[in-house]
């Protein structure tokens, strides 16, 4: 057995039997990947030799994204929110979002909100007069108060201001996810949702304006100046639904892309390090799903409760008019109820679909992996990946109050039915005006007959007494 005592690649004191280094037989160890650590950049060495070639900056090793893809895809909806003064987001540079109190966007948002509040207060006197002229029926009073409930979304604007900092953190987290994905796969994240976002930004204002005009023209005949704040708040409510849809759709698309890339990577080679990198990237995506619910916690808690109240009052207004038949004023209630139910279902269904794609689809891919041809380390990494999907929840939860999924929609509908039954029973227990008039007439008619009979009797008696007295006087004379 020949022994080589020297080698330029290894220290001279190390013996290499048969010309093969002992380090080659060692198994490669997996790299430890931390989730919240920015990927290291490629070091740049300064060569002192004049004949050396300076390497070009490798975009594969140290990727740099000038315009973050996620924000560019949903930019139309963000533009609408910023134009309405709802989302005071500041972009210091492409890919960097933050919230600053002392910023022009925040000043613009405050001016818009103060103008809206002042306009509503100016028109509140007319609204009070409308409430005072109600006929007095319980169901009509509820319908009239429904227009006051339409103004509740004004309260959500300061809530969104409070959560803008967390929304900016979500957008920055997506930029980090894009960088890690490009480093792992060598290509830009293929998300193409710009057309959907543009359609939402154009269609929702048109439909919301039409809905408000139909509602107010068929029910109360508001003037044009009284309709304007309701149009603004209706657009705000439904554009928030479009914003929620885009966030959930991005999670679903990225989860599907990551699952396909992971399956393709396992078909060719099965290194343990590759599986570990995909696991780290999936953990980032799962964290983004949880942070999406946390960043919009109070906003969409308020939106869900507001939609629940609107649906309950609108359906009650429709059911209370069944005995009298549907009229033109019921068209607005029907449109409002249908749109609110659709929006509430849309919010719950999209979050349920996104959570399903992030977790369940990955578990299916991992369970379908053939482990027999892999080495021990790769099998261990796949098992650890599967355990990570089980231990890391990917449900979109609004701050831990409740999970946004289809079960939430079912629970809200069940509660809504209970309140509708209570309201309808309360309406039935209160007699209407016709019944009260009939009872009053039944009581007053006997009283009037008795009074007339007694009066006639007294008149007859008095006349008889007078005639008798006159007859006696004539006899005496």
UniProtKB/TrEMBL annotation:
Keyword Transmembrane helix found: yes
Membrane-topology descriptor: Multi-pass membrane protein
Alphabetical UniProt keywords: Cell membrane, Membrane, Receptor, Transducer, Transmembrane, Transmembrane helix
Pfam families with a match to the protein in the record: 7tm_7
Example GO biological process: signal transduction
Keyword hit for Transmembrane: yes
Subcellular location: Cell membrane
GO cellular component, one term: axon
Transmembrane domains' residue ranges: 106-125, 145-162, 197-215, 227-247, 297-319, 331-348
Membership in a protein family: Belongs to the insect chemoreceptor superfamily. Gustatory receptor (GR) family.
Function: Gustatory receptor which mediates acceptance or avoidance behavior, depending on its substrates.
Protein name as it appears in the record: Gustatory receptor
């Amino acid at each position: 057995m020949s022994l080589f005592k020297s080698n330029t690649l290894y220290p001279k004191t190390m013996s290499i039997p048969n010309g093969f280094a002992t380090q080659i037989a060692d198994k490669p160890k997996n790299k430890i990947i931390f989730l919240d650590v920015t990927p290291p950049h490629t070091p740049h060495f300064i060569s002192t030799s004049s004949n050396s070639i300076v390497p070009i900056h490798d975009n594969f090793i140290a990727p740099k994204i000038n315009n973050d893809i996620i924000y560019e895809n949903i930019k139309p909806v963000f533009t609408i929110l910023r134009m309405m003064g709802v989302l005071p987001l500041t972009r210091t540079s492409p890919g960097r979002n933050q919230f600053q109190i002392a910023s022009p966007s925040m000043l613009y948002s405050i001016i818009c909100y103060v103008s809206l509040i002042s306009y509503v207060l100016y028109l509140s006197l007319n609204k009070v007069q409308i409430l005072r002229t109600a006929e007095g029926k319980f169901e009509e009073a509820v319908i009239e108060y429904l227009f006051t409930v339409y103004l509740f979304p004004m309260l959500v604007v300061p809530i969104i201001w409070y959560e803008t900092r967390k929304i900016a953190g979500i957008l920055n987290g997506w930029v980090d996810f894009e960088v890690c994905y490009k480093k792992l796969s060598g290509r830009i994240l293929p998300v193409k949702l710009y057309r959907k976002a543009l359609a939402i930004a154009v269609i929702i204002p048109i439909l919301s304006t039409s809905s408000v005009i139909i509602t107010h023209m068929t029910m109360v005949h508001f003037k044009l100046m009284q309709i304007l704040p309701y149009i603004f708040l209706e657009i705000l409510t439904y554009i928030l639904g479009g914003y929620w849809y885009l966030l959930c759709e991005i999670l679903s698309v990225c989860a599907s892309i990551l699952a396909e890339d992971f399956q393709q990577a396992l078909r060719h080679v099965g290194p343990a390090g590759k599986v570990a990198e995909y696991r780290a990237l999936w953990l980032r995506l799962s964290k983004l799903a949880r942070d999406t619910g946390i960043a919009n916690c109070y906003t969409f808690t308020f939106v869900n409760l507001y939609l629940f109240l609107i649906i309950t009052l609108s359906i009650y207004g429709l059911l209370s008019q069944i005995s009298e038949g549907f009229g033109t004023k019921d068209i607005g209630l029907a449109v409002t109820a249908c749109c609110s139910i659709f929006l509430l279902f849309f919010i719950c269904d999209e979050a349920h679909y996104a959570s399903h794609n992030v977790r369940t689809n990955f578990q299916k891919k991992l369970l379908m992996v053939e482990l027999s041809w892999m080495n021990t380390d790769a099998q261990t990494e796949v098992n650890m990946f599967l355990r990570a999907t089980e231990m890391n929840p990917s449900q979109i939860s609004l701050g831990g109050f409740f999970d946004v999924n289809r079960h939430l929609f079912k629970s809200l509908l069940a509660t809504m039915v209970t309140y509708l039954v209570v309201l309808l029973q309360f309406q039935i227990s209160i007699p209407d005006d016709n019944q009260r008039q009939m009872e009053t007439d039944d009581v007053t008619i006997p009283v009037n007959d008795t009074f007339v009979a007694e009066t006639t009797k007294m008149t007859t008696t008095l006349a008889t007494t007078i005639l008798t007295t006159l007859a006696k006087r004539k006899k005496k004379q």
